[in-house]
Design brief:
The protein is an alpha/beta fold. It has one domain. 55% of the residues lie in helices and 9% in strands. It has a five-stranded parallel sheet with strand order 3-2-4-1-5, sandwiched between helices. Helix 7 crosses helix 8.
Amino acid sequence: MLIPCFVNGQGHNKIEALVLGTFHFGETPDFRSSNYDDVLKPKRQREIMQVVKKLAAYKPDKIFVENTPEAQAFWNNVYREYHQRILPSSKTVLQNEIFQIGIRTASLLKLPSGVICINYMNDAQKKASSVEKKWLDFTEEVNNKKPDFNSFFKSNSLASTNFKNYLEEHESWKNLRLKDHLVKMNEEESLRNLQYFNVLAWMDNNTNGVGAELASMEYFRNLKIVQNLYKKLDNGDDRILIIFGAAHAQILSDILKSHPVFTLVPVSEVLK
């Protein structure tokens, strides 16, 4: 494991990290979905394979994805069956970016680990420690004061305008090839906008008196995601690929680039 080396500061390798923020290809619990073309159409499949080949050329040692560790056995099975040329029978799974990009890239590289699930969700913590239980109590209380997004945007014109502009940009990106769409989505300004209206805008008017608390919950979740990632690193890992919804990309990148072991690689450099 790499983590003990973080502690004693000796013997660690430097690791390149590529954080690929995506829209969700299929079903999503997000407030607003992308309404993207069916990714199973031949044209989009060609574009996806173009992205997969470029990611494979980057040669990550491990691929991390947005699902909780509890789902690891499920995706291990999807990966095994894909090697037997068996596609997922569920359209939801088949469309998912974890399969379309993560599993297919891992397969090209013949990664023994397939994809590694590192997402964190409060409601997935069935065996919470005493500290986690206190955090769950805290988040439940804060969430009880969280307005729905329509009400929130109605009360915050700056966030509403920012969100509307982002959606308009995203709509225009749909006409691009997928690799160019993903490059646009991962540009600094795009990620900064996502970070604002998805995380920081709660603080503008201290929403219902819990603005900072709502923002802190987003940071906490992403810190837990990175903690899960650390647990899956091994000595000898030189490059990693992290495939997550784009709303996570800014926070995950900030955390990793502040750590002396990691070097962030721009998405544009890999998908150019």
